[in-house]
Amino acid sequence: MSAFLTLLRRDVTLSLRDGAAIGTALGFYLVVVSLMPLGLGPDLKLLARIAPGILWIGLLLAALLSLPRLFEVDAEDGTLDALSLAPLPLELVCLAKAVAHWLTTCVPLCLTAPILGLMLNLDLAAYPALAATLLAGTPSVSLLGAAGAALTLRARRGGVLIALLVLPLYIPTLIFGIAAITAVVTPPGSFLSPFLLVAAVSLVSLVIGPVAAAAALRVQGG
Amino acid sequence: MLMQTLTQKLANPTRFMDLSARVLPWVTGLAAVTIAVGLYLAWFVAPPDYQHGHTVKIMFVHVPAAWFGLLAYVVIAVSSFGLLVFRHPLADVSAKAAAPIGATFTLLALITGSLWGKPGWGTYWVWDARVTSVLILFFLYLGLIALRASIEDEALAAKLAAILGLVGVVMLPIIRFSVDWFDTLHQRASVVKASGPAIHSSILLPLLVMATGFSILFLAMHLKGMRNEIQRRRAIALELSAVRRSASRAQVVER
Could you give the CA distance from residue A155 to residue A152 in angstroms, rounded to a whole number? Predict the structure, then answer.
């Protein structure tokens, strides 16, 4: 457990010191969301209706940006080989990496989303639902993303490939997340059941993601 | 037990090549005959639908294509499991050969579906559950093919594609379930139902013949794809050994 926490603390510290990574993701999110009204027209009613979708999709794309770096740096300098020989199971190493990605990329993006929501005229009543679904859904983004990062570690054009592999897997989180927010904005419909499904998808990802990532790393280690 | 010995027998690529060479012409011929009979039934026996008119004939290609688009993923999932768990030498060949076939069938289902959708629904594309899930299945195939294409070491690419295939097969029901939240226009599944098929036998019979024809066609293309892959690997191995031989001869001459 302490080895897990040490690894987690190391990865979080490294990404925080390299502030450029988080800054880039936040800047990308801001730009993508700002492009939407420019492309769709400044109709506030329309924007309010599609704001949950824009905020979620922009967040998924922004979170993808830092995924290729998840294992790359450690693979380049040999840290990953040392970690795979360590007594800590490789699944937990991958879990620590995914949690670090969640803490340093997804949480800042989730905190930015409400501010961008203001720019899109999102109904104020939707804010608690937006925050809740983003926080419950983004672990799945990091966990499945870790599997994608591990699978494409030795691939040419890995960065673009991750998007193709991982984005289709984010569809359940996206659909249920938006269903939960929409249920709050337009009252008929339940918030709780899609919200619980968002959480369930994250739990499934907690099982699949680290195991798949570790399997992919083992295959590439030999 | 019989099953196991059969897969063990087929594990030998040489024996697989012998057997498939003997079986393939028959399978191909049978597929052609069955599909020809199915098309005849679809064109001349099945009545035009009172609502859809003659466009209902698209269904006889569309529905089997959608079924075998999904079946190909099952083949990939089983082969991936066979590669990662049993290290079956033909499992990777089978998974690799099935991916483009599955992608083609899903694309065929999407294209015929949208051609049918225009007269039926008045639009080429609707975002309902079944259209969307076939589209996502197509994306999963693209991901598998792209991952394989972008890794040079083929043995490594095979294992990584197998891991991705298994992740996909776990996520597929969840994606399907989530996409069901949207469904609107499309009619519900009407062939496989507990109460028995809800469509008339004059339409069901050609459909089943076409489905049988597509399954034999799938088998023929899968066998052919596997044979091509094995021959490609043998050609590479021969080339490598020729290079090695000429290199060692060059060394002898130097001495």
Answer: 5
Q: What is the largest CA-CA distance in chain A?
A: 57
A169, A205, A207, A208: best to mutate for the B interface, most B CBs within 10 A: A169
Q: Please report, for chain B, the start and end positions of each structural domain, with discontinuous segments joined by +.
A: 18-229
Task: Identify the weakest region by mean pLDDT among A45-59, A205-219, B2-16, B41-55.
Answer: B2-16
Phi, psi of B127 (to 5 degrees): -95, 60
All structural domains of chain A with their residue ranges:
2-220
153-182 in A: which are within 8 Å (CB) of B? Answer: 154-158, 161, 164-165, 167-169, 171-172, 175-176, 179
Q: Is the ipTM of this complex over 0.90?
A: no
Work out the average pLDDT over A170-191. 83
- CA angle (A177, A179, A184) in 5-degree steps: 105
Cα dist from A90 to A84, A203, A218, B5, whole Å: 6, 19, 8, 35
The pair of three-digit structure tokens given for residue A176, joined into one six-digit string? 């249920």
Mutate to test the interface with B, among A64, A162, A165 (most CBs of B within 10 A): A165
Q: What is the pLDDT along chain B (255 residues), one digit of tens a residue?
A: 455 566 666 667 888 888 888 888 888 989 899 988 888 888 887 777 666 667 778 888 888 898 888 899 999 999 999 888 888 878 888 999 999 999 999 999 999 888 887 777 777 887 777 788 889 999 999 999 999 988 888 888 899 999 999 999 888 888 888 887 755 433 444 454 445 556 677 778 888 888 899 999 999 999 999 999 999 988 988 998 999 888 888 877 766
Q: Which residues of B touch A141 (CB under 8 A)?
A: none
How many CB atoms are closer than 10 A to CB A113? 24
- How distant is the alpha carbon of residue A70 from its chain centre? 12
CA–CA min distance B30, chain A (Å): 37
List Cα–Cα distances, B188 to A182, B126, B184, B185, in angstroms.
26, 15, 10, 9
Tokens of A151: 């699978």
